């Protein structure tokens, strides 16, 4: 997985699980690795697990839901490709801002 091998440099990783609620595609260990590698956050279009562990991390994580069953790893996926999530296109290099109410996507850095 990208967060295990690449330095985040304050970026946000977007994982498109197709909106599936069948199982968790991200758990506590990868989130800890992402935090240690300098990622600012992770957005998952799908489920996560190990929520208490993730909430204890110093990294922002947003997902559709939690699920106790983890996904089987297939090693598939693409990097740095445009994604369409909930009717919104997200492209590499865009700025993402999230809080408990939602996620904002911007082509430019915003003053906060």
TrEMBL record:
Substrate binds at residues 27-30, 49. InterPro entries: RraA, RraA/RraA-like, RraA/RraA-like_sf. It catalyses: 4-hydroxy-4-methyl-2-oxoglutarate = 2 pyruvate; oxaloacetate + H(+) = pyruvate + CO2. SUPFAM superfamilies: RraA-like. One of its GO terms (biological process) is regulation of RNA metabolic process. Mg(2+) binds at residue 50. GO terms for molecular function: 4-hydroxy-4-methyl-2-oxoglutarate aldolase activity; metal ion binding; oxaloacetate decarboxylase activity; ribonuclease inhibitor activity. Its EC number is 4.1.1.112, 4.1.3.17. The keyword Cell membrane does not apply. CDD domains: RraA_family (cd16841). Its cofactor is a divalent metal cation; Mg(2+). Keywords: Lyase, Magnesium, Metal-binding. Belongs to the class II aldolase/RraA-like family. Catalyzes the aldol cleavage of 4-hydroxy-4-methyl-2-oxoglutarate (HMG) into 2 molecules of pyruvate. Also contains a secondary oxaloacetate (OAA) decarboxylase activity due to the common pyruvate enolate transition state formed following C-C bond cleavage in the retro-aldol and decarboxylation reactions. Homotrimer. This is 4-hydroxy-4-methyl-2-oxoglutarate aldolase. It comes from Thlaspi arvense. The lineage of its organism: Eukaryota, Viridiplantae, Streptophyta, Embryophyta, Tracheophyta.
